[in-house]
Amino acid sequence: MLLTLVPLGSEAKVTEKNAYDFGFVSIDGVPMELAKYKNKVLLVVNTASQCGFTGQYSELQALWNKYKNRGLVVIGVPSADFGNQEFNSNKKVKEFCSVNFNINFPMTHISKVVGDNAHPFFQWATDNVGVIGTPRWNFHKFLIDSKGRIADWFSSTTSPSSEKIIKAIEVQLSKI
Prior knowledge:
This protein has helices at about 55-65, 90-100, 120-130, 165-175; strands at about 25, 30-35, 40-45, 70-80, 140-145, 150-155. By secondary structure, the protein is of the alpha+beta class. β1 and β2 form a beta hairpin.
């Protein structure tokens, strides 16, 4: 297996795993293995329905619409880790996202994204980017390259439609 070192944070570690080694449960309760997205570029975002950044759902949907046919997969991971700003049921999250933002990109079950009980994907991502790249609030974004490695990360305040994110996505898509 390929060793990955992503020097994005001061405590980045070498790991033999990549994003494709992880899976979630979809918002509908179905297994959602990231391996099914091999050779695609992923933008994994921890989301929250009642956050000041919730408007970013529209921008994430726009990214999905624009780039899905070129190989981008946007994945929303609802979480109540920050300010308890997520509904307490997957059904409510799905309904909110559908009614308010017409979301049709893949969404996962409500998950923990920080701490000892964080979902294994987020533990792996934190190990790879170090403390500096760890989610500190809702709508933190991890960009995963087509080999399953972390290509970059973006804080909650970085808009999905920002030039910085668009350029990073296009660079990764050009490598597919």
